[in-house]
Amino acid sequence: SPESGGIFVLLHRLFSSDSIGEIKRKAFAAGFSDEDWLSFMVWAASFYSNGGNYKGFGDSKFIPDLSPVRFSIFQEKLKRLASSVHLISLYKEVEDGIFCIDKRTAGLGFNDGGVTTYHSESVTKNDSDFIYRYMKQRSLEGWNSRLFKEEINGRTTYIIKSASINGVRAHLLKARGITDNVWQYFVESPAKKTHSNAIKAGEFAATSNEKAMMGKYAEHFTSGEIKDHKDASRLWIRDVNPVVESYIGFIENYRDPAGFRSEFEGFVAAVNKETSKKFAKLVETAEEILPRLPWGKWYEKDSFLKPDFTALDVIAFGVSGIPCGINIPNYDDIRQNEGFKNVSLSNSVSAMPKQKINFISEEDEKLIFDYNGKAFEVQIGLHELLGHGSGKLFQKNSDGSFNFDKENTMDIITGGKVTSWYEPGETWGGLFGQLSSAYEECRAEAVGYVLCTEMDILKIFGFEGEYAQKIVHTNWLGSMLKGLTALEHHNADKKKWGQVMTVHLINPLPASPLAHSWARYVLLKVVLEAGQGFITIEERKDPSGVDDLSFRMDESKILSVGVPAVNEFLKKLQGFKSTADVKGGRALFDKYGAVDHADLKWREIVIAKRKPRFIFVQPNTKLIEDGRNVELVTYPETPEGIIQSIVERFA
């Protein structure tokens, strides 16, 4: 958001100026109660955890559960504590941004109906679409860019700014003839430390490949050129089975309303060797498993590029929301022709504590408590490797040739010939735009649902017999239930996915990024349409007389009802994706993604029953005196612990 940078500086200067204990004493002198202080701590910790004042999982704004007047008095009391850092004037600049919520500022989106800093305030969706087409025609990629529109000398001028540390390097790019200009700038960004640390990390590289990879990262942050980051990604793919894993750059496009530009993020993690052995076995058998997917050999890559698939324990992840698994790099040309890596972030799952689960029976709750960790291990493996790692994009090459047999490949949806494909310069994310993230997560999630029922696959993970059946039951039950609770993220007023929330308390509850939530809701609707009593959702009253829901799944119908329904839907998802049929894909997704009247009632109950979200406390690493060894610094599992972790990370 526009105010996030100022809020970060405000909080960082505040918490760096004195101990949290002394700041608390000042707050109570300003009239804070225990509840006020907790609200402030939770809001600050949530801000740090989400990389801003909009939820990384949900894209909606959160504000302190504290009055602006009380907050302002608190800032005044801090004058002596931090007079040298101008906290008061800085607070006045961001106060409206902290507390204001209206229809526009409630969620991220194009500036006519939301908030974004991926584009300047004057940029419309039509402008964004035009610039996408313009960049595609010139084979320019916008991962690390932001879009601005200005009137210069009476002419509408589009400015594409890409992050670099070289400073401004401007290119005038011809656009719509004499009326408009497009300029491309490589602008100086706060990437100097990233560059210098990439160089420093190269000194500790275990192999020459890792050293070269770190060098390419540094070149990318210097030049701003995507080709340099692609080269770094190629080296990263070749870095097989490292003990320490790391990736950094402008990676995921979830938060850009156009689905074109990406968030800066990076992680460092240590390999979990035992779980990684299971994933390695899955990779070895992947080519035998892929033909079981419902689209046939013509819709699968010509050869499966066996990726490195590891389970990692995250040490540090700079991102707006730590995922449970990732499949990267996101560059279509590299993924399809050279390969990718699958990563499961094991300790982001194991860190989630047990708490009461809404809407299901005590028996089902116990099942999830007992088997969810193992079931999720299976789901994340199938989702990342055989979900994101499967399927072919039909492309026309720049020389006019095709990467598929245009004359003999049948359209698996119409039964006729394939009549659409990706033109040169077109990408999956660019063409499908904002829909691409949820659509792809839905496809990958569905792959996990259908393949987790295969007993030979479960045997790879060490599960057989009755235990394997429990894993299947748990995975389907938990996943379908998440489809229901995903309604929390639907904005009924805007009839879109995204929901505003005031932060009240910190309390662990597994949550999913908006794309995953929407995807799971769509799959729930697919299964509900299949009927036959497989999934039953009924309204009821809880023991206190409050509106409640009963969610039941008939385990005996997973194979007879659930799998066939999801398989048929999965085939359509792949068909539209492979053939670049945006219209067909959107119509399919919107059919099941729409929230009808009955679902809105369920949504009200889901929101009334929702639990507060969890926030991860991350450790820091610190070089000790010899400069060759590292100390791992951990923090308490409290809002204060999160704040201290961030303050010391950026000290």
Helix-strand blueprint:
Blueprint: H1 4-17, H2 20-29, H3 34-50, H4 68-77, H5 87-99, H6 125-137, E1 145-152, E2 155-164, E3 170-174, E4 180-188, H7 192-202, H8 208-223, H9 226-238, E5 244-252, E6 263-272, H10 273-289, E7 308-318, E8 325-328, H11 332-337, E9 341-345, H12 346-350, H13 362-388, H14 428-432, H15 435-451, H16 455-460, H17 465-485, E10 490-491, E11 496-497, H18 514-530, E12 535-541, E13 547-553, H19 558-578, H20 582-593, H21 597-609, E14 620-623, E15 630-633, H22 639-649
Parallel strand pairs: 2-4, 7-9
Antiparallel strand pairs: 1-2, 3-4, 5-6, 6-7, 8-9, 10-11, 12-13, 14-15
Helix pairs in contact: 1-5, 3-22, 4-5, 7-8, 8-9, 10-13, 13-15, 13-17, 15-18, 15-19, 17-18, 18-19, 19-20
Spans of at least 5 consecutive residues whose pLDDT stays below 50 are 499-512
Strand neighbour order, sheet with most strands: 5-6-7-9-8
Q: Shape, please? A: globular
Helical proportion, percent range: 40-55%
Please outline the major beta sheet: 5 strands, mixed
Distance between the first and last residues' Cα: 23 Å
Strand content: 5-15%
